[in-house]
Amino acid sequence: MEVQDDEKIIVQSLIGGSQLPFYLRCLKSLVTFCQDRIELQLHTDGSLSQEDNEFIHAELDSTMLVINDSPENKSRVLDFLQGKPNCQKVRKDSIWGIEFFDPIFAFAEDPISFYLDADILFLRPFSGLFDRKSVKDGAVFLKDTQWDAYSFRPCHMLTSKKTQVVEGITTGLVFWDKSAIDWDYLEWFLGEHHLHQIPEWIMPTAQAGLANRCEAKTISPIHIPNLYPNARTYDDTFGVHLLGSYRKQWIEKLEDRKKTQRKNLPIINPSLEKCVSQNFFGYSLRQFRRWKNTRLNIW
User: Fold this and answer.
1) 117 vs 43: CA distance, rounded Å
2) Answer CATH for 5-295 from 3.40.50.670, 2.60.120.10, 2.60.120.330, 3.90.550.10
3) pLDDT digits (tens, 9 = 90+) for 97-154
C-alpha cells in the first residue's frame, strides 16, 4: 500500500563539501537504524561540486533523496519572508538562516517540518522519532543538559519580558508545527542586535524564545545526548549529537562501544520532556558553567 502524502516523512538536513564523508556516515546511520519509512531532503551551503553530488547519491543509493541547492532556493524562501526584512537579512547573510528557514518552506503545504543536523550519529534501531502528533502545536528539540547556548547576556533577561526563553535546548534537531511559530516575535528578535552577542547562537536563541511561546518539548538526553566531554551514553541511547569541538575524542569512544554492542538490539522509542522556562538565576548559573568549561577546562 502506498504511503499517503500526509503520512510521508521527509527528514531534512544541511550539508556542505567540508567534512562530507563524516556527514554521509551520519546520514547513512539514520537510514540504517530508522525503522520508519523516510525520505531525505538535503539542503546545501553552496559548496558542493558535481562530484560531491554524485558521491552523495552513490553513498545513499537506496534512499529516496533530493539535494536542494540553497543558493538557488534563496529567492523562493525570500518570497515567503516578504514583509519580514530582519528574517530576510538573516536568510541572505547566514548559514544558520538557511538551516532554519529552508526546511520550514521546503514543503509549504506540509504543516510539520523535520530537520536534523548531519552530525547526529545513530547507534541502534529506533522508531517513532519523526512523529507528527508529538510535534503538533509546538516544536521538538534536543535537550542541552550542560549549557544555555544562547546569544544574549543574563542582564538582558531583566530588561524585557520578550527575552524569556526555555531552558537548555540545542537546535541540532528541530521539528516544527509551522502554525506554532510566532513570526512577529521572530522578526522582533532578529532586529534586536544588542541581543546578538554570539552570532552563531542567534538562531538557536530565537528558537528558544519561540519555544517559550508554544508547546515545545525535547528528546530525552538518555536517547540522544549532546556529547560534551562529561556526557554519558546509555544502553538506550540510540543517537548522539557529535559537537564539533569534542567530536574526535567521542568518535574513538563510540568505536569501542560498537565493538562490544550485541546484534539484534530491540527497537527504541524516544521519550519526550516538556520544555520549561528559564529565569535570570538559572541562566546566570549556566553561563558561569560554560565559562568554567571553556576557559578553565573544568567539567
Assistant:
1) 11
2) 3.90.550.10
3) 999 999 999 999 999 999 999 999 999 999 999 999 999 999 999 999 999 999 999 9
